[in-house]
Design brief:
The structure is a single chain. Helix content is about 50%, strand content about 15%. The protein has 15 helices and eleven strands. It has a five-stranded parallel beta sheet with strand order 2-5-6-1-7. Strand 5, helix 6 and strand 6 form a beta-alpha-beta unit. The chain is globular. It starts with 18 loop residues before the first helix and ends in a 5-residue tail after the last helix. Bound molecules: adenosine-5'-triphosphate and magnesium ion.
Length: about 375
């Protein structure tokens, strides 16, 4: 069986140790310090937080995924659902939960994969939910914090900025959380600019309200040992330098390293050695599955914007207005590059970090370099 997992949260045996990060998280839980936990997409934020919580058996937690919540009522339902799941994990029977929270009219079902009970809430007074309602919704969480060490994880927290009532929601949340020093809140997010706006802008209610933690790549040496063990389990030998090439191609993005390793596994056999050719065919398999969606992205862009993308693929996005970059991309003017970068960032094709521009996926970059796009 292919031992590489990607696209899902990993904990336990699937979690490559990140002792420093987990220790930091444990320290913050112990001191009830609210934290903002930022990092690039697929870098391992959610996994690290859940792994840290798994290691603290006596700490209760609930995870609210803010992603895709298009209405305030949807967000409130998600908070209740998560709180009910926590009650169930804590040992309260399904019957008792349905009774105790009857006013929420919860529907219970069993997750087919984990076998754990899950709950769905359908608020009857959806139209009467106001940002101020959040104060009441968070009340039982505050009570829980008085009884036990309790962590609330708001995943993809920046998504709340999409809500119509965003300003009032953020202000009310901040106010209610401030009154709950017993509860530890973790705010996770990946869209740099939006998270920065929420936590680094002095005009925002959450300004400086949480300790900042960054989730970057796993150290290559540690990750290599972990990955090597997995290949060894299936009797695949690795030619020297192969893992370095995988890290380079996946630009050290944790989930993408795992995806490429998974395809390398599919492209190799027991007793055989993985070499450059195996990597090439693994990468090809990824490019083939992504070819259609990648081509659609290109079709929506102007030739100038595609040239800028090609330039970044070739020489990187650290200095996109340098002479070297202009030569590599074939764009004449730095101002044209700047305009293209604006659109490409707005569309989510590029993201801007402290070290320049990056592609939303490292395999979009490798696809660009191997495709014969003419501009
Ligand atoms: N510690 C780890 N050990 C091994 N693989 C990991 C680890 N952390 C993350 N991964 C890999 O990265 C993938 C993404 O992890 P996770 O969902 O935790 O990241 P994330 O930063 O929360 O991503 P997103 O931006 O999509 O929310 C996992 O499916 C797994 O392949
Ligand atoms: Mg996540």
């Amino acid at each position: 069986m292919n031992p590489f997992t990607y696209g899902v949260v990993v904990t336990g045996e699937h979690f490559c140790p990140r002792p420093a990060l987990v220790k930091t998280l444990h320290g913050n839980i112990a001191s009830r310090q609210n934290c903002v936990i930022r990092g690039g997409r697929r870098m391992g934020k959610t996994s690290a937080v859940l792994e840290a919580l798994r290691g603290r058996k006596k700490t209760g937690h609930m995870l609210v995924n803010c992603w895709g919540k298009t209405s305030l009522a949807g967000f409130v339902e998600a908070i209740y659902e998560s709180f009910l799941s926590y009650q169930s994990r804590k040992g309260l029977s399904m019957e008792k939960i349905l009774q105790a929270f009857a006013h929420l009219r919860p529907k219970a079902s069993v997750d087919p994969q984990s076998g754990a009970p899950t709950f769905s809430i359908d608020l009857s007074d959806r139209n009467h939910i106001r940002p101020r309602s959040l104060e009441k919704v968070l009340e039982p969480i505050g009570e829980e914090g008085k009884k036990t060490t309790f962590v609330v994880v708001f995943d993809e927290f920046q998504s709340l900025m999409q809500l119509k009532e965003c300003e009032a929601v953020i202000a009310t949340l901040r106010g209610a959380i401030q009154l709950q020093p017993e509860v530890t809140y973790f705010y996770l997010g990946s869209m740099r600019n939006e998270m920065d706006e929420l936590f680094n802008n002095p005009n925002q209610p959450f300004f400086k309200s949480a300790a900042a933690i960054t989730v970057g790549p796993i150290r290559r040496k540690t990750f290599s040992d972990y990955l090597q063990d997995k290949f060894a389990m299936g009797r695949r030998k690795l030619k020297a330098g192969v893992l370095e090439e995988i890290f380079d191609l996946a630009q050290d993005v944790t989930g993408d390293v795992q995806q490429l390793c998974s395809e390398v596994w599919n492209s190799s056999h027991r007793g055989k050695t993985v070499d450059e050719n195996t990597i090439r065919s693994a990468l090809n398999r990824i490019h083939q599955t992504e070819n259609e969606s990648n081509s659609r992205i290109i079709d929506l862009l102007t030739p100038g914007q595609v040239r800028v993308l090609m330039g970044i693929a070739r020489v990187g996005g650290r200095h996109p207005t340098s002479i070297e970059f202009l030569n590599a991309s074939g764009v004449g003017q730095p101002s044209s590059v700047a305009k293209a970068l604006q659109r490409l960032t707005r569309e989510g094709i590029l993201t801007r970090g402290v070290d320049g521009y990056h592609f939303f996926s490292p395999f979009f970059r490798t696809w660009l370099l191997t495709s014969d796009i003419q501009v």
